[in-house]
Amino acid sequence: MSVSKSGPTEGWERGDFPIVCETCLGENPYVRMMKAEYDKECKICARPFTVFRWKPGHDARYKKTEICQTCAKVKNVCQTCLLDLEFGLPVQVRDAATGPSAIPESDVTREWLAAQAAKQIASGQAQYQTTHGRQEMRESLIKLARTAPYYKRNQAHICSFFVKGECNRGASCPYRHELPTEDSELSQQNMKDRYYGTNDPVAKKILGKTGAYKLTPPADKEIKTLYIGGVDADITEEDLNDIFYHFGELKEIKVVPKSNCAFVTYTTREAAEKAADKLYLSLNVRGHVLRLSWGKPQFADQSTTQSNAASNYFSLPTATVVPPPNPSLSKPFYASMNPNMYGSKRDR
Asked: Which domain holds residue 170?
């Protein structure tokens, strides 16, 4: 690992060696790297940093660092592929087991956080903790992790002229002469989504195969309500409607600002299950990562507290409250009330 040094401008980052995984580094132990100080802006914090560029193999494509070392250390990810350095998995898969780490996405707050993280890293205080989370979840991550480097990920891109039938380079072409197998969402990955662990198609594919983190629908088929947690004040019902209406007809959307939650009710159970499958672990509204779960049954325990009732979106029956006596009332009014309500004359 390299130690970041302060550059000529405060906040700029300079390093002697990149923080990359074994796969991105390549199988050749003798790697020649090109180093350009303050050459690019970090794709996350937008601060200039030292960019490294190298070729991990004779038939591989050139690779370079995409984010700064500070952002890489905050999330414990590779500067190039943005995969976790410990498990070699996408951030979204790792956070599903160990719990997501709150990283602000606004420009001002993100710049302040990057500056604070750089100071803590320089003093040796900031280290990403991968020990949190339940032990069984960590064991599942170990099962999913790759035990050996996957150098196939460093292959050159497919030659677009070959696909069109117009490439005349032949064997000297640095790109692969293969036809694309499929045009899926895996080829449309976003750097920030991969870093923050939201809407990552690779993570969705891994989680879909394992099924360990799927949202299991309740046995009660009458439940058609989805619970959304972590709803901030700037999220409105219109924002939720723009996301959830794609999956079916909506019956009601209710935002509870005091509990920072919302409830989305569909007219059919099929629409609710479809929304739960597509949006679980990938629900992002206005830059906020929200939690998604199923609503609880309508006939819940009557001893549930009022705060739990708000989160369940089912109102409890209201009890009739008798007001205490008011001494300022006239005597005839007391006479018209039940004489045993306030005790007998002997008790008074």
From this structure: 156-210
| DSSP secondary structure string for all residues of 148-214 | S--GGGGBPPBPHHHHHT----GGG-SSB----S---GGG---HHHHHHTSS-HHHHHHHHHH-TT-
- Decide if 238 contacts 256 (C-beta within 8 A): no
> Bigger pLDDT: 218 or 322?
218
In a domain, residue 91? The reply is yes
Of the candidates 181, 162, 185, the residue with the CA atom closest to the CA atom of residue 172: 162
Report if residue 333 sits inside a domain. no
- Name every residue whose Cβ is closer than 8 Å to that of residue 214 and which is 6 or more positions away in sequence: 207, 208, 277, 280
Same structural domain for residues 173 and 238?
Answer: no
**pLDDT beyond 90 at 288:** no
CA distance 196 to 77: 11
Is 155 a residue whose pLDDT tops 80? Answer: yes
Instruction: Decide: 12 and 49 in contact? Cβ < 8 Å.
Output: yes
Q: Does 64 reside within a domain? A: yes
Crossing angle (nearest 10°) for helices 237-244 and 269-279: 100
- Enclosing H/E stretch for 51: strand 48-54
Q: Which tokens hold the place of 289?
A: 């990562």
Burial class (CB in 10 A: 0-12, 13-18, 19+), 307: exposed
Give the sign of the dihedral formed by CA 305, CA 309, CA 310, CA 312. Answer: positive
What would the two tokens of residue 252 be?
A: 């009601």
Please give the residue that has the higher pLDDT: either 33 or 9: 33
Domain count, the chain: 3
Span 156-169, mean pLDDT?
90
pLDDT surpasses 90 at 174 = no
Beta carbons within 10 angstroms of residue 259's beta carbon: 14
More confident residue, 299 or 6: 299
pLDDT tens for residues 20-59?
Answer: 999 999 988 888 999 999 889 998 888 899 999 999 988 8
